[in-house]
Amino acid sequence: MNAPVKTDWPDRLFETLKRGRVAQVGYVPDAGHARLIERCRADAQIRDVVLTTEEEGVAMAAGAWLGGNRSALLMQSSGVGNCVNMFSLMRTCRFPMLMFITMRGEWEEFNPWQVPMASIVEPVMKLCEAEVYRAREPDEVEGIAERAVQQAFGDERIVAVLLSQQLIGKKVWTK
Amino acid sequence: MNGQRLDRRAAMATLLAGRGDDLLVVPGLGSTTWDVAALEENPRDFHMWGAMGGAAMIGLGLALAQPAHRVAVITGDGEMLMGLGALATIGIQQPSNLAVIVFDNAHYGETGMQPSHTHDGADLVAIARGCGFTTCLDINDEAGLADLAARLKDLRGLLFARVAIEADDPPRVLPERDGVAIKERFRAAIGVRA
Predict the structure, then answer these.
(1) CB of A134 within 8 A of CB of A72?
(2) B45 to chain A: nearest residue by CA?
(3) Tens place of pLDDT for every residue, chain B, 194 residues?
(4) Is the ipTM of this complex over 0.90?
(5) Full strand arrangement of the beta sheet holding A22-27
(6) Under an 8 A CB cutoff, do B66 and A93 touch?
(7) Helix, strand, coil: what percent of chain A each, to 5?
């Protein structure tokens, strides 16, 4: 029997955001981020903002920083494509942009429509001059997130943390 | 789209006359940025040279971060149309210190005056109302503009206004172009640190 997969990484990621004084969290509803979103919604000091599309969260992060707030943007891999032009705002003005991206389309993915965007997330983010990190194991999420918080707000950079699909599990299509 | 329309530069001057240090302005890409710059280059304005479709959401992030300030997003119909989902997002958040004002000339002024969706029927006021903006105004005369200016000075609740303006192309007045400089002077002006 396999060891049970650790599932507390979203809680540790939440605590990292709290320690990092993140005050606004934008997100598009996402199964992989469900627990983290739930924690943010329950926290009185974090303003959670549900978005209609991920690029809204990029612009919101710029506004938040103009007003002195740290923010984070949660999305799945398909959302990266929606953001590309808005990243020009972050690069031109050197705004901090902290992103946590749950990956679809890679590990035991049933839906081939998820693959094209997921397969280019890393090169696209690098072309946008983001620092890109990938967490594959539950125990490495927190450390990578700590680094990402420091780099995004300390250096005013775009930082993308990719959360591999094996952290999240495969989507169940038949019930 | 018939009816009276206002002069954009005069309308901007009316809205921002005696604005007060607690008013932060996010003009959208293009003509509204030139309109704001034509009045003065104020560090409390975040001039936009790009990021089309982003003005309203920049306004939301700023309004949530600075509840003691009033935030006015003043953008064009084309810029607003590119990010209509933002109105739904803002409607849910209901910041009481945010106004989204659209200077609607029913055309894409920066690209050669091609007609926009509002030219042929898209109703931004109805969309904003449907998204939960508590006050929605449709303005095409001086009395309406004066009312909007008064409401902006004493902003109490989420406000949307469409201001019908003439589809002309006044001389461009170009503000600072360096995004880092615009950002840094804005943050310094309102005294925020990371």
Answers:
(1) no
(2) A66
(3) 458 999 999 999 999 999 999 999 999 999 999 999 999 999 999 999 999 999 999 999 999 999 999 999 999 999 999 999 999 999 999 999 999 999 999 999 989 999 999 999 999 999 999 999 999 999 999 999 999 999 999 999 999 999 999 999 899 999 999 999 999 999 999 999 75
(4) yes
(5) A47-50, A22-27, A70-76, A97-102, A158-163, A131-135
(6) no
(7) 50, 20, 30
8 A C-beta contact, residue B35 and residue B103 = yes
Alpha-carbon distance of B102 to A58, in angstroms, equals 21
Which of A24, A50, A57 is the closest to B64 by Cβ?
A24
Instruction: Please indicate whether, in this complex, the C-beta atoms of B58 and A85 are within 8 angstroms of each other.
Output: no
Distance in angstroms (rounded) separating the CA atoms of residues B62 and B70: 9
Count CB-CB contacts under 10 A for residue B38: 18
What is the length of chain A? 175
With 0-12 / 13-18 / 19 or more C-beta atoms within 10 angstroms meaning exposed / middle / buried, residue B17 is exposed
Contact state of B64 with A85 under an 8 Å Cβ cutoff: no
Chain CA centroid to CA B137, Å: 13
HSE-CB at A164 with a 13 A cutoff on CA atoms is 14
